Amino acid sequence: PKMTLLANYQVPRYLVDEALLHFDLDKSKTRVISTLKMRLNPESSAGECVLDGESLDLVSIKLNGKELEETDYQLSDKSLVISEVPDKFELEVITEIHPDQNTALEGLYHSGRLLCTQCEAQGFRRITYYPDRPDVMSIFTVTIVADAKAWPVMLSNGNLEEQGQFNDGRHWVRWHDPHPKPSYLFALVAGDLYCQQDQFTTMSGREVSLRIYVDPENKHKCDHALVSLKQSMKWDEAVYGREYDLDVFMIVAVNDFNMGAMENKGLNIFNAACVLATPETATDDDFYTIQSIVAHEYFHNWSGNRVTCRDWFQLSLKEGFTVMRDQSFSADLNSAAVQRIDDVNGLRSMQFAEDAGPMAHPVRPDSYIEISNFYTVTIYEKGAEVVRMIKTLVGEEGFRKGTDLYFDRHDGQAVTTDDFVKAIEDANNVDLSQFKLWYEQAGTPELSVKTHYDPINQRFTLTLSQFCPATPGQDNKADFHIPVAVGLLDSQGKNMPMQLQGESTVYDGDTRVLSLTDSQQQFEFIHVSEEPVASVLRGFSAPVKLKYDLSNTQLAFLMAHDTDSFNRWDAGQQLMINVLLDIVDDIQKQNKLAMSPLLLSQLEAILQDKQLDPALIAKMLTLPSENYLAAQMQVADVDAIHQAREFAKQQIAISLKRLFNERYESLSQTKKYQFNADDMAARSLKNLCLSYLVASHDPLQIQRCLRQMKVTDNMTELLAGLRLMVDQAGPEREHALRAFYEQWKHDRQVVDKWLSVQAVSKLPDTLLRVKALMTHEAFSIKNPNNVRALIGQFCRNNPVHFHAKDGSGYRFLAEQILKLDKLNPQVAARMLGALNSWRRYDADRQKLMKASLEHIAAEKELSADVYEIVTKYLA
Ligand code: DPP
Ligand code: ZN
Fold it and tell me: How far away, in angstroms, is 492 Cα from ligand 2 center?
């Protein structure tokens, strides 16, 4: 497989002004007639015309109406090259494809009872020969012909222009999308689908018809997504001034889907799990995620579709920006503090690991072998942080001015991250040239903080310094421009006035943003009447690792008093990490274990706080995950971490049992399920209390858990109960699992949860169970959601069993990857991520993991997807 380099970018030689596609749809053999109106790009010069194409049966080619001879073109398994073309021409290519044999789920494929497409990034070339790159934008008109009984609904992008019947039982439709778009945004869906409709009136008064298409058995599951869609449309008008631009907006739910969802113009296609929900079948987390994914895909209509990417190295142009937009949407509609905590938690546990490992790459990468491997947490989540920092630097209003200019200047174009930054600079008259290193340099910078208080002169000095470790291909890093939000707290926990040396007035506000641009800088605060505790990196103002040696007492102080809710939570997390790592140390030294009374008293105070949002209480009482703890150690000791966390959890449970009990009972009054911030907060705290009560190892609490499962009206509480039950060996566990399955076996979304909870069980026979479940009727290795629920959860979220000392977890993963690679390379490559941090474990485990990686690498016919990752891991 070969490497593609950003440095080799060249403009396309031929452009496509119009693409007329005709589909004769059939499950096993679909005929595609593509008529392209092409011309020489004025920025290029004439030469051979290269079209991408993979897994296609070529039937015929006509150039300006004349059939081409085999000597006029060269065909390979990746392209069709026509040696000579005029400057302006019409090309007609007929191909045949086989949707029911497409297990990779790229291009046109068959899923359940429907046919659908996935074209991002390079799936369109599996439908027809085409310059399949995002900087070729064309106007698409799509005609679909198929048997009317088998395929009653036939959809594509844009507006429906015409439709009709033939008298042989077939029917046809024609869709026209007036907005020029790259091929990756093309979509087609056909099937016997139920449609739920609604309406939205845009800010300029246009009526848009909203439609969600689902399998008929899911017709009761569309309400939440429709509400979310209307919320998104309204929010994008209010916050970014962006209005929708077609008469219809459609969403289709599909059971077999590699990603979460796809923003095809006017026709979003969703993984069913990311759109369908009822209180009985989906948890609060599902409702929350669905709201944000519906928003994300909708927001792409501007950040991605109207203004798209020049090439795939610019992927974060649309993804980073759009994630940042969906995160602010969720923060506005729900609890901003909880949203920030969850975003940062995800970033630290996933992206920091990626940035510290063998696949580390910049937000704008400069090379790839397989672009599908770059739909990463770095492109998405770190990319979102980078855009968020820009907003922090230019302020809310300045950011809006910048995005207005960006959308205005580049509407209908395929552009770069440089163009994005330039628009913000031009609108605000600022220089972001140093800041742009965030796009170019990989790795997580470390931000070190030192403080000094001079009581005589009442001066407080904050010394900030930065360092970024080397990453593959980047040994030396230049200094970043890091926005550091700080506040100073007095001994009462009140924010103190801030005035820097050289400033004539006191800063107006509790938090101010300092810009660190050198490797080390001092910030001198004057008129500081007592020694403060500095609250640094408030709201997590930059994606860095904070090195700030606060004592446990100072952390406890911030945990109790910081007015920045993110930093308040984070101080608690740091305190927990300190305590847990001490316990790990005691385990390694075989010392007697003890729980920190300081942490216990802090947790007690939080649990008793009646003013604090219950959702925040739940977050503050949640111990850092085993994976995140592992990332804090030089050599990750999986078993000791597990033991330490279990020990701490039990100690907290026993000490605070009365309070957990009271809170649980007070939150238990039965109330019909509603998805709103208050009720969600109450359920999250209630379930957290239950998990601690069960951790106290009091058998009565198991009964309480079973009772919750019995009386509840919603999946949030039912699943929380089941999750706790799967860690309890015995007949009650088996009964609970069986009953759950019997009740829900008709529902794929729920069955995936049933698979997941079993995959993350702490009980010793978990791997055997997982293997057995792979032969269960509920599991198919061809379904990505099944694979992620069972294999993915086991390998990523069950560290003690995945990292079993005998290597059984690693061998299991390798075996599954080799099997999956033959079916679906994207899913196979994703699963490999579980071995990303393999060099951070002890020598024995490293050896075993390496052996599994080598076993995979030895396979002769690996996909480019798996090949790229496995060779980078072993490099
Ligand atoms: N469907 C993916 C997303 O929306 C890729 N564009 O992020
Ligand atoms: Zn996206």
Answer: 44
DSSP summary character for residue 532: P
- The mean of the pLDDT values for the chain is 98
Task: Return the HEC string of 7-22.
Answer: HHCCCCCEEEEEEEEE
Please tell me the distance between residue 301's alpha carbon and the centre of ligand 2 in angstroms: 10
* Average pLDDT, integer, range 607-629: 97
Q: Quote the pLDDT of residue 671.
A: 82
Report the residue among 116, 119, 120 best suited for mutation to probe ligand 1: largest number of ligand atoms under 8 A from its CB: 120
Give the integer Cα–Cα distance in Å for 380 and 318.
Answer: 9
804-819 residue pLDDT tens? 999 999 999 999 999 9
Looking at residue 451, its pLDDT comes to 98
**Nearest Cα residue to atom 2 of ligand 1:** 262
Atom of ligand 1 nearest to the CA of 319: 7
H/E stretch holding 227: helix 223-240
297 noted as active-site residue: yes
Nearest CA to ligand 1 atom 5: 262
Of 824, 813, 823, which Cα lies nearest the Cα of 870? 813
Residues with CB under 6 A from ligand 1: 120, 259, 261-263, 296-297, 319
Q: What is the mean pLDDT of residues 814-835?
A: 98
Q: Is the pLDDT of residue 90 over 80?
A: yes
Q: What is the b/e burial string over 624-643, where b = at least 16 CB atoms within 10 angstroms of the residue's CB?
A: bebbbbbbebeebbbebbbb
Task: Please report which ligand is nearest the Cα atom of 264.
Answer: 1
Closest atom of ligand 1 to 260 CA is 1
Which domains can be identified in the chain, with CATH numbers?
A: 4-192 (2.60.40.1730), 308-440 (1.10.390.10), 446-533 (2.60.40.1840)
Contact between 326 and 302 under an 8 Å Cβ cutoff? The reply is: no
- Distance separating alpha carbons of residues 152 and 92, to the nearest angstrom: 28
> Are the C-beta atoms of 421 and 432 separated by less than 8 Å?
yes
Going by C-alpha positions, the residue among 430, 432, 428, 408 that lies closest to residue 418 is 432
Query: Which residue has 């005691």 as its token pair?
Result: 586
Q: How far is the CA of 339 from the centre of ligand 1 (A)?
A: 20
Asked if the model's pLDDT at residue 670 lies above 80, the reply is no
Alpha carbon of 550 to ligand 2 centroid (Å): 38
Report the alpha-carbon distance of residue 828 to residue 837 in Å, rounded: 17
Ligand 1 atom with the shortest distance to the CA of 297 = 4
CA angle 629, 634, 639 (to 5 degrees): 50
Question: Token digits for 852?
Answer: 């599994």
- Taking the CA atoms of residue 372, residue 850, residue 640 and residue 755 in that order, the dihedral angle to the nearest 10 degrees is 50
Residues near 79 by beta carbon (within 8 Å), at least 6 away in sequence:
50, 51, 52, 53, 129
Question: What is the 666 CA–ligand 1 centroid distance (Å)?
Answer: 41
pLDDT greater than 90 at residue 752:
yes
* Catalytic choice (92, 263, 297, 717): 297
- Tokens describing residue 113: 């009872």
434-438 long-range contacts, CB within 8 A, separation 24+: 434/479, 434/480, 434/481, 434/517, 435/389, 435/390, 435/393, 435/480, 435/481, 437/477, 437/478, 437/479, 437/480, 437/481, 438/363, 438/386, 438/389, 438/480, 438/481
Contact 837, 795 (CB under 8 A): no
Helix 715-725 crosses helix 677-695 at what angle (to 10 degrees)? 20
- Residues with Cβ within 8 Å of 695's Cβ and at least 6 positions away in sequence, in order, are 646, 649, 650, 652, 653
Nearest partner of 297 among 400, 391, 185, judged by Cα: 185
Ligand 1 atom at shortest distance from the alpha carbon of 293: 4
Cis peptide before 238 (omega within 30 of 0): no
